[in-house]
Design goal:
heterotrimer; A mainly alpha; B mainly alpha; C mainly alpha; B: mainly alpha; 58% helix; C: mainly alpha; two-stranded antiparallel ribbon; 22 helices; 2 strands; globular
């Protein structure tokens, strides 16, 4: 598997896929896409990187342990729910704000926060499974 | 349409049960994965099947125009797929690890937790 | 995003427009706290010294929320909150009635005790493998399963607690654990998949997944829908989760393999979720089908309890013996479900609460005993009385409590169950309850005699004399749970009142349904216009 071609292409491919996964994540609010599929794409990007260069470069590249990323996602999702308590609406109600940044109206919402949380949960969980499997194959 | 999918679901169930009856853990795993798909198809069929009418409300209306596909089974199936996918990934790692450690994938030989020669409790002081 | 609204939409038809009372948030508070603190624990996984305190703080807050919820429900009746501002049945409903609140509270107590016990029992490596995050997520899953009012959501929580229990089960990845975990994982996953299958047919029949909605529509569907088939599927799936007789073999194969605190929590919580689901589904959704199945459930219950106790008699390993006692206790609760009378259900609920506390405490005890004896085998046990007389006292209390002897909490539940069986003339069920009590007494009495009264066995490596003294955390959690069973045994009145109220609520689900769907609401008129 570790041919020269693959090793040359893998970093570009992985970074493209990460970029694409963020695109899919943000697109997901009104069109097909979303946190789950985005997270899967990002995890497969790391899996490709891992196949090309081994597991430890991947671990170094993402800095945090994948399960910690999962935890971060869970935290974001929980926060997205808790915000509803302070606005006096039932749990997990979608809340919206429209801040204007550089003259562009940006729609930010708790569903989006929740979706980003899902992205990180899936990304972390699948990456840690994939890395565990790849690690085993080596030894 | 329902009939065809029902027959397909039956085939899925048959395949999964056949695989799960095997003693080899990897076949059981495949059986469980197919069982999950069979159940997903069941949910989907139970939600009544409508073709080529996505459940999308057009911009100018407040309610859908005409008959649309039932979106709820799709949401349920999606949730179930996500869950069964993550379980499949987990079980794959688990099976692989236990195959490495125990050295067999035959469930009859997997007696680490319940050894064959476990002594009977003492019958007196 | 709300687009241009040039048409009129009556939001009151689908949305809750007034703000919920602050107390209503108590329904979701336990699981939110569980997830939040679980997430924080996951993020600080490297910091194994700080993690336990975060987790304990989370468990204390969860218990506080459970307590608040219990009190609120006791005072004001069922509390309902529907997610995302939708009206039921459009949104996912969380509804805490007395049954859910009581089970959640007991789970909170047991979970906190487990967390405290684990401060010493689970070392640095266990923490690094994620003991505390998994514990909190499992607690969140268990509590949410008790509180949700939506059957598909119940399935999701089953999976949440299942996947965190996998994580706990393979903590450390020893050979034995991997073997036990494989069997546990496969059989439980098949059980939840069958549960999902039953949900599929339920949805196909009713077109709704809200339990209160199904409950009020069940009467009309009875002639046309395959409700009996669905009920049997539910019985099979939940029976497997609860470890009821012919589908219980995963439990003794796996419950003795993980760390003792994990076994304790599993024994206290997981099978009880199955029992809870059986009570909820059969009494609220399918009361008629329950009457039709009562004979079958009674036979299952009798077989489960007697065979569980006999299995306990045949075990040499203390942990495996306890595993069989868990099964035997499930039989007791199923007996209450089979009887279906108010007395029987009171007994079943009382027994469930008792069993959650006592089985957890027994595994804690086994952990201490095993550490002092360097193993769990009865053949080499002995000499503990001279080592730790106080431990012998606690052990005697717990062992008598699990076999249902006075004056501890197991007694009262069995009194109710025997009385209920005799009321309907099911003498054989009463006989099996008493026989189970006798067999359990023999099994636990033998354990006590061998490990405490017998002299220390010679072949027990003398070199490892003076094992590490029992730490304060471990003792504290054991003593706290033991105190609860003593208190419930000596002064059972409050718990009987609670169980009695749960039983009467379960037998008249209209109260629950009316809280979810208030009779004079906009949604009611909408439903009527549909019909």
């Amino acid at each position: 598997m570790r041919t020269l071609i693959f090793r040359t292409v893998a970093p570009y491919l992985a970074s493209l896929m990460i970029l694409f996964s963020i695109f899919v994540l943000l697109r997901g609010h009104n069109e097909p896409g979303g946190g789950f599929i985005g997270g899967l794409i990002a995890a497969s990007a790391l899996a490709i990187y891992g196949i090309a260069f081994g597991v430890s470069p991947v671990r170094r590249a993402i800095r945090f342990h994948p399960m910690a990323l999962s935890g971060f996602g869970l935290f974001l999702a929980a926060i997205a729910g808790i915000l509803s308590f302070f606005s006096g609406v039932p749990f997990l109600t979608g809340l919206w704000i429209y801040p204007s940044i550089f003259g562009v109206d940006l729609a930010l919402s708790t569903p989006m926060l929740f979706d980003i949380g899902v992205y990180f949960v899936v990304f972390g969980a699948i990456t840690s499974t994939a890395l565990a499997l790849e690690e085993r194959e080596r030894d | 349409m329902e009939t065809a999918i029902t027959i397909l679901t039956g085939l899925f169930f048959a395949t999964s049960i056949y695989l799960m009856l095997s003693r080899h853990i990897i076949r059981i795993l495949l059986g469980v994965a197919i069982l999950g798909n069979a159940v997903n198809l069941t949910i989907f069929t139970n939600g009544r099947i409508t073709r080529e009418a996505p459940p999308i409300i057009p911009d100018h209306a407040a309610v859908p125009e005409g008959v649309i596909a039932n979106p709820l089974p799709q949401a349920l199936v999606l949730t179930a797929i996500v869950i069964s996918f993550s379980f499949f990934a987990f079980l794959l790692v688990l099976v692989f690890r236990s195959y490495q450690e125990i050295g067999t994938d035959d469930t009859d030989e997997m007696r680490e937790a319940e050894p064959r020669d476990e002594p009977a409790p003492p019958l007196g002081y | 995003m709300a687009g241009k609204t040039d048409y009129h939409v009556d939001l009151a038809q689908a949305l809750v427009l007034k703000a919920p009372a602050a107390a209503d948030y108590l329904v979701v508070a336990p699981l939110v706290i569980g997830f939040l603190f679980g997430a924080i624990c996951l993020m600080s996984r490297k910091n194994t010294d700080r993690q336990p305190y975060i987790a304990i703080a989370g468990l204390v807050l969860m218990l506080a929320a459970d307590l608040g919820l219990f009190w609120h429900v006791w005072q004001n009746g069922t509390v309902v909150m529907t997610m995302g501002r939708w009206l039921p049945p459009f949104g996912i409903t969380f509804a805490a009635d007395m049954l859910g609140a009581t089970f959640a509270l007991t789970a909170g107590i047991v979970g906190l005790a487990g967390g405290v016990y684990a401060l010493r029992d689970v070392g640095r490596t266990g923490r690094r493998y994620g003991f505390y995050p998994f514990l909190l997520l499992m607690m969140a899953g268990v509590t949410a399963a008790f509180l949700t009012g939506d059957i598909f959501n119940l399935y999701v929580w089953f999976e949440v607690l299942l996947i965190s229990s996998f994580g706990l089960l393979i903590l450390g990845s020893e050979r034995e654990q991997l073997d036990g975990a494989t069997k546990y994982a496969f059989l439980n996953l098949i059980a939840t998949t069958l549960f999902l299958l039953a949900v599929a047919y339920l949805y196909g029949t009713f077109g709704t997944l809200n339990m209160a909605d199904i409950s009020r529509k069940a009467a009309k569907m009875r002639e046309t829908g395959p409700l009996f088939t669905i009920a049997v599927l539910f019985l099979f799936a939940f029976g497997m989760k609860a470890a009821a007789f012919p589908v219980n073999f995963w439990l003794p194969a796996s419950y003795h393999t993980p760390r003792i605190v994990v076994s304790a929590l599993f024994a206290g919580l997981l099978t009880k979720v199955g029992v809870y689901a059986l009570l909820r589904v059969f009494l609220m959704l399918f009361p008629v089908e329950r009457d039709m199945l009562a004979g079958t459930i009674a036979i299952i219950a009798g077989a489960t309890m007697v065979l569980g106790a006999m299995g306990a008699l045949a075990q040499n390993d203390i942990r495996r013996m306890l595993g069989y006692l868990v099964i035997s206790g499930i039989g007791m609760m199923l007996a209450g479900l089979a009887l279906g009378s108010e007395t029987g259900l009171t007994g079943a609920v009382f027994y469930a609460v008792h069993s959650m506390v006592v089985m957890t405490a027994l595994y804690f005890l086994a952990g201490i005993v095993g550490r002092r004896m360097n193993g769990f085998s009865l053949a080499t046990a002995g000499g503990l009385y001279s080592q730790a007389p106080w431990l012998a006292g606690i052990a005697l209390v717990l062992l008598l409590s699990v076999s249902g002897l006075p004056p501890f909490s197991g007694l009262w539940a069995k009194v109710y169950l025997v009385k209920a069986s005799l009321d309907v003339g099911a003498w054989w069920l009463a006989f099996s309850i008493l026989l189970t009590g006798l067999l359990t007494t023999i099994a636990v009495g033998r354990t006590f005699a061998f490990s405490f009264w017998r002299e220390r066995q010679a072949d027990d490596g003398e070199g490892s004399e003076a094992p590490a003294g029992t730490s304060g955390f471990v003792t504290a959690s054991l003593v706290a749970l033991t105190a609860l069973t003593v208190a419930a045994g000596l002064y059972p009145e409050p718990l009987i009142q609670v169980s009695d109220r749960i039983a009467s609520e379960l037998l008249a689900p209209a109260g629950y349904v009316d809280t979810v769907f208030p009779p004079q609401g906009p949604q009611q008129t909408e439903v009527q216009s549909q019909q």
